[in-house]
Specification:
Strand content: 15-25%
Number of domains: 2
Radius of gyration: 41 Å
Order of helices and strands: HHHHEEHEE
Number of strands: 4
Largest sheet: 4 strands, antiparallel
Structural class: alpha+beta
CATH superfamily of the largest domain: Ribosomal protein S6/Translation elongation factor EF1B
Shape: rod-shaped
Distance between the termini: 131 Å
CATH class of the largest domain: Alpha Beta
Helix content: 40-55%
Length: 222
Amino acid sequence: MALIPQDRRGQTFLLLTVVALVVGYFAWAGLSLAGVTGYRPLGAHRDSVQTELDTINAQVARARRDVAGGALTKMEQRLEEFRTSLSLMRQLVPTSSEVPNLLDDIASRAKMRGATFAGFTPQAVESGSPFDTQRYRLSASGQYDQVAEFLTDVASLPRIIVPYDVHFQRVQGPVSDTTKSASQLQVTFAVRTYVKPAAPGDSTAAAPQAPARPAASRGAHD
């Protein structure tokens, strides 16, 4: 008990010292229960804000250097190239509603070249991302040059349509025009095209639809 002053003045001074120490501690550490923020939390918050500010300043400085070095112009050029590529892709890739017209175009090319077109056989749709794949088997027959021109037309259509699995067969048959050779060529092949997947609930594009065989193509050799 010797540490505690016996006189009233000493006790008062000791009490004031203890109170000052307690107040000083809470001023440094804070008192969360009372919502008092001390010097240490304020210092930590200040350091955190300063770090974020330094990071933002560094990003701004880097952005300024990039702009000064032409990065913005390069980004605008890349964006324009992307827009051009996207526009071209939209022109090359048909929608589901455009596929029947594309098939009609193929049949019309056969008629235009004088070949006999036998029609389409739809295959199962292969779902994918970002495009679905639709396939069809088809066949046509005619003179060698007619078949060759027809295949060239199919390969040069403005939409993306890929012929594959091509098979040729030489066929013999009577012809009314004796100036023409009875030897003809029959070609059977498949084509595939890529279309944008149908929207959910849209049943119109759930399965590939082939157009009816053009009536005029049956009499292409008449």
